[in-house]
Every structure is written in C-alpha cells, then in structure tokens.
C-alpha cells in the first residue's frame, strides 16, 4: 500500500513546529527533517507525532491514541494503528520523546 501525503487532520490555526532531539517537525508543511534528510508525513503520521510530543515522558495506552486519532477504539482501528505505527517506526526509529 502506498503512503499518501495528505493535509493535516488537526488543521491548526497557528503554526506548529518543534524539535525532538536531532529531528525538526513542521506540522503545517507535514515535514520531518532528520539528520539523513526530509520525510513527508501523512496526516495521521503528523497527528501521531503531535500526540506523542504532547504526552512526552508519559506512558500512553493504545486506547488513548486510537480515540485521539480516530475517535473510537475497536479491532479495525487497532489494526489501522499497528499499520500506522510500523510505518512511522521505519523512518523515525530513534526518537526519544
């Protein structure tokens, strides 16, 4: 399945940019700058990164992520979450939040 770059899901009123270690994240442009280059993110990947940033140093339950990103917690969305997280981990293997 091909990753599609899309518009942000949260649609913020202001610009959201932050650094995580050696990574720089720009939500409005859906870009994550890494030491090895730039990665374009999908809307869900960008929302997941914002969710992780807002919950730094906290233990997060999968249920909380599912409800925050999809509004519900069931088997179908749990599978979607696993697919999203695996893809996310491929290009962001070492982000310490």
Question: How are the secondary structure elements laid out?
Answer:
Elements: E1 17-20, E2 23-26, E3 31-34, E4 37-40, H1 43-54, H2 62-70, H3 75-91
Key phrases:
3 helices, single chain, Arc Repressor Mutant, subunit A, about 100 residues, alpha+beta, 4-stranded antiparallel β-sheet, about 15% strand
Task: Characterise this structure.
With 97 residues, this protein is α+β, with helices and mostly antiparallel strands. The chain has a single domain, classed as Winged helix-like DNA-binding domain superfamily/Winged helix DNA-binding domain (Arc Repressor Mutant, subunit A, Orthogonal Bundle), CATH 1.10.10.10. Helices cover 39% and strands 16% of the residues. The protein has three helices and four strands, in the order ββββααα. A four-stranded antiparallel sheet has the order 1-2-3-4, with no helix packed on it. The longest helix is centred in the last third of the chain and has 17 residues, at 75-91. The radius of gyration is 13 Å and the shape is globular. It starts with 16 loop residues before the first strand and ends in a 6-residue tail after the last helix. The model has no long low-confidence stretch (mean pLDDT 78).
